[in-house]
Amino acid sequence: MKQAIAALCLTGTILTSLLAVSPSIKNEPVVQVTGGRIEGVLNRAGDVYSYKGIPFAAPPVGARRWKAPQPVVPWSGVRRADAFGPSPVQGAPSPFGPWSAEYLIPKTPISEDCLYLNVWTGKQATRKKPVLVWIYGGGFGSGGSGAPIYDGEATARNGIVFVSVNYRVGPFGFFAHPELTGESGNQASGNYGLMDQIAALKWVQQNIVRFGGDPANVTIAGQSAGSMSVNCLVASPLASGLFTKAIAQSGARFATPYPSLREAEDDGKKTARALGASTLADLRALPAEALLKQAQAMRGPIIDGYVLPASIAQLFADRRQNPVTLLTGWNEDEGLAFGPLKNAVDYTAQVNQRYGTQAEALLRYYPANTDAEAAQSQRNLSRDQTFGAQNYHWAVTQAQQRLPVFVYRFMRKVPATGDYANYGAFHTAEVPYAYDNLRFVDKQLRPLRQADDELAHAMAAYWANFIKTGNPNGKGLAHWPAFTAPSDSIMQLDTVIRARPLPDRAALSLLFSILQTP
């Protein structure tokens, strides 16, 4: 009798364990994670489970505003993980420029209580799947993991555990103040958004095996400010050991350093005075809307001496960054020129005034012989200042330090109607291709063609191969050579995919040297 009872207890223990870690037990599996149990959802096709809105830290509200992420608050029972958590506090999402609704966060919910992540994993209960952690863009002032084009189902179907994370943005994620520095325990303040990302990566290390993921095979990826975040995480000693590979799509910061802690603290004091807040308690008691309105310009990482001990360029030059295999690149038409473009005469005068003795050399690569040529040069210069020169320099640094790197240029002028037809291979255009999410793109605004589906399938295969092995190449794909300075071979991603030498490396090298000049 005792043996029978023991056997029943053992069977119950095994079943409980399987329910906690194996998605194949039931259609809506229960998984034990830090804080409690969650219940996910099986997709309609019956091959991918999603777990949305998983808290990875305590809500950063009240006394936790402007603190490093705190341990998650445990819950009882089983938490239903079938909806995205709130996006971080920001302005209401509204389509603008090339970005239609599918590129933006949902209109609701939006809250300071925003530290949630999402997981997609294939139904097959395979162990040791590679893991991708996705970090969204938005200029460090907007964005969220709930944007439709960030869906992880297609990537999960490709044998990868896809994780997308929220982090604080704007004045909630990047507000520094001397009193915050003093109370922190590490003599730093301001990089709360980056610390959120690091906390999420630690959650992945502790929990991802329960979704079939391999914590020893984690790739971080992001676009725009997400790519700049990836750049910061690779540079930060606090992220050591949390990932081995990085995908950086249009964003890095090498040429001009982020603000110093002192500069950021001074901005924080000015903001506090403008808000009439004389203490931290006063600041933390302010409504989120008041802070958002007063501190719109307060966004982005800080050289705080803790998360970022020095500038990105210095950390890499000293080889103090976390060594990773890198896939990086940028888009052909992603110059962010908000406002009217100048004619040839005015543009030439502006370049001469801004760049002095280097203007003549710069105008050889960004010429202005006609108004039309000047307009294109302004777009190209904007693209290369913000993205091209930065990501190119990162690739060159990797190659010089004998770290593997693969570089792309997304060239596909996305088919579009109306004003959307003016944007070509715009900023963010590559994201739904790389993660095989064209099904979320509004086909009335952008009537995609078979060539777009073919490009998306190829790009998703390259990305998946890189996430799995650190090499994008695979069967049936055009060969993507590693980037090695001096050959500077890149992959051109268009309706025809081919490797070629980087055509404008001289321009990028010159521009980077100019941008470095104080």
**Morphology call:** globular
CA gyration radius, whole angstroms: 24 Å
Helicity range: 25-40%
Main sheet characteristics: 11 strands, mixed
User: Low-confidence segments, ≥5 residues, pLDDT <50?
Assistant: 1-27
Number of helical runs? 16
Oligomeric state as shown:
single chain
**Secondary-structure element sequence?**
HEEEEEEEHEHHHEHEHHHHEHHHEHHEEH
End-to-end Cα distance, whole Å, is 83 Å
Strand tally is 14
Mean pLDDT across all amino acids: 93
Spell out the key features of this protein.
16 helices, alpha/beta, eleven-stranded mixed β-sheet, disordered N terminus, three-stranded mixed β-sheet
Describe the secondary-structure layout:
Layout: H1 2-21, E1 30-33, E2 36-39, E3 41-42, E4 48-55, E5 78-80, E6 116-122, E7 129-135, H2 153-157, E8 161-165, H3 170-173, H4 178-183, H5 192-207, E9 213-223, H6 225-235, E10 245-249, H7 261-274, H8 280-285, H9 288-294, H10 312-317, E11 325-331, H11 344-355, H12 359-365, H13 371-400, E12 405-410, H14 431-434, H15 450-469, E13 489-493, E14 498-501, H16 505-516
Helix pairs in contact: 11-12, 11-13, 13-16
Give structural notes:
- By secondary structure, the chain is α/β, with parallel strands linked by helices.
- The protein has 16 helices and 14 strands.
- An eleven-stranded mixed β-sheet has the order 3-4-6-8-7-9-10-11-12-13-14, sandwiched between helices. A three-stranded mixed β-sheet has the order 1-2-5.
- Helix 13 crosses helix 16 (about 505-515).
